[in-house]
Amino acid sequence: MSNFPLLPQFILIFAALLIPLFKGKLRAALALVAPLAAFASLLQLQEGMFWKINMIQFELVLARVDGLSLIFANIFILASFIAILFNLKAKGSVEHFAGLLYAGCAVGMVFAGDIITFFIFWEMLTIGAVLLILSRKSITSMGAAVRYMLVHVVGGLILMAGVMLHIAETGSIAFGEIGVTNLSSLLIFIGFGVNCAWPFLHSWLPDAYPEASIGGTLFLATFTTKGAIYALIRAFPGEPSLIWIGTAMAIFALFYAVIENDLRKVLAYSLINQVGFMVIGVGVGTPLALNGAAAQAYCHIIYKSLLFMAIGAVMYRTGKSKATELGGLFKSMPWTAVLCIVASMASFPLFNGFVSKSMIMSAAAYDHQTIAWLAMVFGTAGVFLLAGIKITYFAFFSKDSGIRTQEAPWNMLVAMGIAALLVIGIGVFPNQTLYQMLPFAMEKAYEPYTLSHIIAQLLLLGFTGLAFSLMLLAGVYPAEIRSINLDFDVIYRKTAGLGYRFFDYSLNEINRVTKSSTIGFIDKLSDFATQACANVAVIVSRPFWAISGKSSDKIEELSNSIRKKLGRGTLPFGFAGSMILAAMIIMVAAAFV
Amino acid sequence: MEENSDKFKKSGKAAIATVVILAIVCGLLFAADFIFLSEQFDKHAYFEWENWPGFYAIIGFAACVILALFSRFILRPIVKREEDFYE
């Protein structure tokens, strides 16, 4: 195999650049073929380091092909194919362009063999994401896009500072295990945390995902957070603080998901919960846990995409995504409803969430991480309640909203169907599919399907469903109401206004004072200079006028006329003055010669 | 609150039937969990409480109740704002 094989990220990015040149069906076909071609090239790759390029004193490696990069590249390309198929009828070229670019950068990032290449692709993710948020073309999405960009630029700067310090300290650009040991590694850690939506760094996620276009959300929900999980597995496996960070993520986001009315926002919060599972897996750091984190990323992308697609199809047909406005849609959109139910059951045995999530939970139990384990049991029940039951119930069942519409278009149904097949296929045959791709060698193969495990999971989820329906009947379950819920972003969204006003008042006031003092001073000086000449002239002339017997009225008139003429610079210039000036010019010239 | 339960009741007998079937299935599962009390079955438990029959049932039910009540009575009063709050 050559040292420069055709890399999938090149195909995706090249296709993205070609997209604006085509129109209509040709453009859709190109967008659809690109991920297929990328997948074909991915299958050709063999493990090793390729595309080594010497840049100044560093050797960049564009393709480090190993188990970890392969499993992430695999799901990223697969998810982009499903998303593009779902979004096939997108108007304009922006969504296909941004989607392919975003996917290409994500694949480029997981293949990056050195930290500089990694950083470049990491940063480029934001371009695709921001374009996809903007492609909704609403005022609120513009605001969300700007906030998304600012948050990720700040995160990127923190990461860049860490990367530069790290390179300076180690003298190497290798991107491998780093571990939190000093300032540089802490900065890199936090930079990853921004994209990973850690608590307090998370609010860009529920802010932006529901604002993106219907198709755009699929890309957003796939690449950024899971790319950060990849980076954490690569650089910080077994970092103990990640267990606590993940535990917090698995719990707090669910409470927001309960009271959130916008169903895409419910999914965004439950996505944070699921990423929390992966973060715990990275923190535990055993081969089983790391495999679990990678497997969970793989499966989660599929079933979360399916949920976003189902709600996206509802939005496409009804223009609505709020629980208060939806309900009873299973009559109009039965296929979408069934596919949504498949995704919502992802944690059940025979579905893919079961075989991946339980790896992380078992790994945490083997490692005696009691609190993280309990948080994940709680989180499994909670996320089924919210991303599963709540989404399906309020969109497709609940009270009939009276909306009568059509089933989703064929391309959306096919995309959702492929995702649903993957959800069930991986769940039924984990050993033939998912477990073949696990990146880290384990002592013994993991077996998710034991009788006790199946019954435990069914009990957990069954009683979750029972609790939901009993609480609905009893009127205990919080009503869906039209409102927004403050999250951490209130800090920068509201303080940004305060900051703006603060700088408006303070800086502009300084400007005003400086301007008025400078200009005022020069103004006064020029006034003074003009007046002074006139006054001197008047004072000198007065005695001569008096001697020549002019009346006092005449003297006043002459004084005023001199003041006016000097003020305007229109004093008649006499013959003597001309002679003096000429003489001065000649003297000056002579002095130079 | 009332609105939600009304919605559910209005959807009629089907809803009640769903709940009853769900309750029966849950009851059967709960009973099934007791077979592990027998020595013949190894529950692969890593924590002692996993051996308690119905542990997962209780935690699943409790998780939902905690989520619903905390969100409704503590979180929502703190964070709820009008939809035009940021405009």
Which short descriptors sum up this protein?
heterodimer; A: 593 residues; mainly alpha; two-stranded antiparallel sheet; 20 helices; 72% helix; elongated; B: 87 residues; 3 helices; 2% strand
Furnish the topology, listing elements before pairings.
The complex is a heterodimer of chains A (593) and B (87).
Chain A: H1 8-18, H2 24-44, E1 48-55, E2 58-65, H3 67-86, H4 94-111, H5 115-134, H6 139-170, H7 183-196, H8 204-208, H9 214-235, H10 241-259, H11 263-284, H12 287-318, H13 334-344, H14 352-366, H15 370-396, H16 410-428, H17 451-474, E3 484-485, H18 490-547, H19 552-568, H20 575-592
Antiparallel strand pairs in A: 1-2
Helix pairs in contact in A: 1-2, 1-4, 2-3, 3-4, 3-9, 3-12, 3-16, 4-5, 4-9, 5-6, 5-9, 6-7, 7-9, 9-11, 9-12, 10-11, 10-15, 11-12, 11-14, 11-15, 12-13, 12-14, 12-16, 13-15, 13-16, 14-15, 14-16, 15-17, 18-19
Chain B: H1 2-10, H2 13-32, H3 55-79, E1 80-81
Give a concise summary:
The complex is a heterodimer of chains A (593) and B (87). By secondary structure, chain A is mostly helical.
